[in-house]
Amino acid sequence: MYIQNGELVTILGGKLKLRRHPFKSLRVLIFLLILFVGMVPCLIIRGVVLRSNESYSVSIRMAEIQNQCTILCNQLSVLDTLTGDIPESIDAEITQFSNIYNGRVMIIDQSYQIIEDSYDQDVGKTIVSGNVIKCLRGESISNYDERNSYIEVTAPIRVTASKDIVGVMLASVSTDNIVGIQENLKQTMDIIILTALVVLIVSGILVSFYITRPLNRITKSVESMTESSEGNELHEYAFLETIRFSEAFNKLIGRFKVLDETRQEFVSNVSHELKTPLTSMKVLADSLLSQEEVPAELYREFMGDMSEEIERENKIINDLLSLVKMDKTSHDMNIETLDINQIVERILKRLRPIAQKQNIELVFETFRTVEAEVDETKLSLAVSNLVENAIKYNHKNGWVHVSLNADHKFFYLKVADSGMGIPKESQEHIFERFYRVDKSHSREIGGTGLGLAITRSAVVMHRGAIKVYSEEGEGTTFTVRIPLKYVASTN
Questions:
Q1: Is 249 helix (H, G, I), strand (E, B) or coil?
Q2: pLDDT in tens, 351-375
Q3: Is this prediction's pTM over 0.70?
Q4: Which of 82, 178, 376, 415 could form a disulfide linkage to 386, CB 3.0–4.6 angstroms apart?
Q5: 468: part of which helix (H) or strand (E)?
Q6: Which residues cross the membrane (predicted)?
Q7: Where are the beta strands (DSSP E) in 302-385?
Q8: Model confidence at 338, in pLDDT bands (50, 70, 90)?
């Protein structure tokens, strides 16, 4: 048991079993996202509604109290002084005001003495507070104490004639009824939110299942493809994303099928090519064994034929090893800055005796000195195969023309011959492994059908391109383009 990429891995019976974190599930993430997107606005709306309702209720109640205090202060303003008893009519209104709003009203004179108290508790006592002092200076003050749930309003009492402030009316009103309304509203909002939560949970489950159902079908389809020998195409068209995935996956399956067919064909061809020389040698050996007193000349002839078959077998094996080596070391290029002219000249010098046997003129034309970043071994193998094929598949007294040129970005190698040419229908297959245009002629001159496949692989590894131009009976021209600066693969 160990941790890998944040996942707990358990080894059971030699197999790895991942304990995946639930939050890595797309279904869980979609469900949580729906809950989050749904609940956050609900909670915000709940807070805004409760706060707005409380502010509105308090402001309405405060305005009512201020209005009542103003009315009472206007009635008291007709008195020249606040000393003595308050008229019974005003006292009754103060009592009524206190009862209606469930509050307390006090009248305070200029000496901060309470001369009227609706509770009849503090008459004659002195009260000194910041709000009373400010009110005696002419400021009307209203406060809401949310913690203790009451509203306090102070209003100045002015004498009508002189407009002098002779006292203060202090009203304290409980907001318990507002708090009660808030509690009822909070319960209602909580019920609504709870209902919304249930709806969101159900919706989240349904939506997450609906969205991930195509992915589950895709997973099952892929698993069935991996378990069966034949892969069927994927057809999942629930969403645009699954359509694109299906199309991309089907293309991938198509490539895998082509690769698998190519692999099977390659194995079949390798088996056939390796078996043919062995069969020939066995036939020759059986012929010798079945005869008594074989003449030395016939024995020597058969052994010569067997030697040729062994050489052919050896060439096929070497070419196969070259292909395998290139496939395995495609990222292991031994890049050096080399003189391409010298490489081509060395190759032509080695192949010139082969050309002279068939009286083939081998010409090398170069337009400038070319230096490039290449793998000498792989490039030499590609050039050797092209020139050697041009010599082998040529007519006697023919010619092979090799030219080298370059610009600021690429160098260009062209190998042209006066040979038999390649039919149009075969030109797109000549770089396939074991493909032969003329199988009988290829075996006659010792071809394996791997040379051009090796050449193309070497050119592609240099980030280059190779093309063929040919007319049957009129010769063939191969053109190779390779960058002067090698660019390593980023994969």
A1: helix
A2: 888 888 889 999 999 989 999 999 8
A3: no
A4: 415
A5: strand 465-471
A6: 28-49, 191-211
A7: 335-339, 361-366, 371-375
A8: very high
Could you give phi then psi for residue 376, rounded to 5 degrees?
-60, -45
- CATH number of the domain located at residue range(s) 330-483 in this protein: 3.30.565.10
| pLDDT tens-digit series, residues 54-99 | 999 999 999 999 998 888 888 887 766 666 567 788 888 888 888 8
Q: Could you give the CA distance from residue 79 to residue 83 in angstroms, rounded to a whole number?
A: 9
Q: Kindly report, residue by residue over 199-223, the tens digit of the pLDDT.
A: 999 999 998 888 888 888 888 777 7
Q: What is the DSSP letter of 436?
A: -
Tell me how far apart the alpha carbons of residues 271 and 269 are, in angstroms, rounded to a whole number. Answer: 5
Question: Quick one: tokens of 273?
Answer: 């090519």
CA-nearest of 128, 158, 127, 132 to 143 is 132
From start to end of 43-178, where are the E strands? 103-109, 114-117, 141-145, 150-158, 165-174
Q: Kindly report the number of other CB atoms within 10 A of residue 28's CB atom.
A: 15
Cα distance between residue 400 and residue 384, in whole Å? 13
Please tell me the distance from the alpha carbon of residue 172 to that of residue 265, in angstroms, as a whole number: 100
Residue with the two structure tokens 């009592």: 95
**Residue 15, pLDDT above cutoff 60:** no
DSSP-assigned letter for residue 86: P
Between the two ends of the chain, the Cα-to-Cα distance in Å is 32
Q: Is residue 371 helix, strand or coil?
A: strand
Domain ranges of the chain: 76-180, 274-325, 330-483
DSSP 419: S
Q: Considering the domain 76-180, what is its CATH architecture?
A: 2-Layer Sandwich (3.30)
How many other CB atoms sit within 10 Å of the CB of residue 95? 13
**Residue 320, H or E segment:** helix 296-328
